[in-house]
Amino acid sequence: MGLMKFFKALRNHWKKSTVALAAISYGVSYGVERYEKEQLMRRYCEDAVRYGDMPLPTQLKPRHVTVILNPAANKRKAKDLLEKYCEPLLHLAGIAVTIVQTESEGQARSLVEKYNTQTDALIVAGGDGTLTDVVTGVMRRCNADINIVKKCPIGILPLGQTNKVANSLFNGYADLPEIHAMAEATMAIVRGTTKLVDTIRIEPLEQNTENSIKPVYAIGSMEWGAWRDAYTNMNKYWYWGSLRRYATYVFNGYKNDLSWDCKADLQYSDPCSGCSRCWQKQQSSHLTSNDRRWWHSFIPQRNPSTAPEIDYSNVINESCGTLHAIPISTTQLEIVTSNIEPNSPEAAPMIHLHLGPANISYLDFVKEGWRRANGNKKSVERTIDAKEIELRPHESVIKEEQTKMFSIDNEDFEVKSIRVKLLPKSVTMFCAQSVNNAVS
Q1: Angle at which helices 362-373 and 244-252 pack, to 10 degrees?
Q2: Spatial separation of the C-alpha atoms in residues 314 and 333, rounded to whole Å
Q3: How far apart are CA 199 and CA 268, in angstroms?
Q4: β-pairing, 216-218 with 194-204?
Q5: What whole-number percentage of the chain has pLDDT above 90?
Q6: For the whole model, what pTM was predicted?
């Protein structure tokens, strides 16, 4: 009898019942998700404590890491995420942590260039843009001497909106992927699992003698084109909520201020596994011991590796460094490292240059934008594998009324003639155990 009254009440007040049911469902879902997060973090904390409880030899000091935090990353959520999911694991593992916050865009470069406190690793708390700033700061500080740069392991805590590099190092989690990635990235620092990754050096071809521009070093990719321009406008459509990533391409597909016609003269050299020409260039870039003194205040001295190195001075490759010239006209150009798109193990070190279609309709632009928003593979008309690239945009592009921009790991730079050079296995980064090819 009571059950009949209950169902009759539901029928007579179906609107209130629907709202109440939705609220209860949301509450249950929220409670389950919160419980799963707590259980996941509990397991990671127990793992971190095991490392913290290990006895430390008397001749060794406790590990110390410096975290470069971009508090503006991920809509100013980065600091809260760091304090909630990452920093506790480091403390439980017995690692001393110094946090340095940036206050403006690009400040991480200058902070790293001038940082004089002894540390065992630099940890980036942010997205791809902050990572590029830190890597650039390290490279500039040691004049891009790879032998020195490798001694400074760099960690990435994926706390930004764009985390392509971190996704390549910490991915494949079906449940709670964001929490898993943050915790696993932190535990990679605790465990000390590292791998060598490629970087690309991007520098202007034409320098002003009065105001020279220093190179920028990236680990992920460089983009130029219509889809890149549309993506940078995404936050303007915040009122669309989660649909703004789709609305962006709908509302930008007809705009004339996008880079619809990326015209440039392109020169590139073929990949090379190592030869006498490469070897000579590397030798000429090495610093003397007197130039390395600053490093003693930045990274503790380590015993030099005793692993034998390949002598490339006897390897002959006459085509190494030979540039091939082609004109390009495209709606999208992207230069991607093997960190984002892995090469086969037997392939020579290379970067991938992807060229999109020369022309595209509004409907196809929107379709392609939605494909990218869903994380699907981008449509590419042509791919060129290279070791070094010189890109000279046409004067008509540079002198347009509205300044066109490149994106280097999601950071904006003015379009100009540039040289992009691959630096294979030049930076040591913390990684998940599954992708570890540890540096001895």
Answers
A1: 160
A2: 36
A3: 17
A4: antiparallel
A5: 49
A6: 0.83
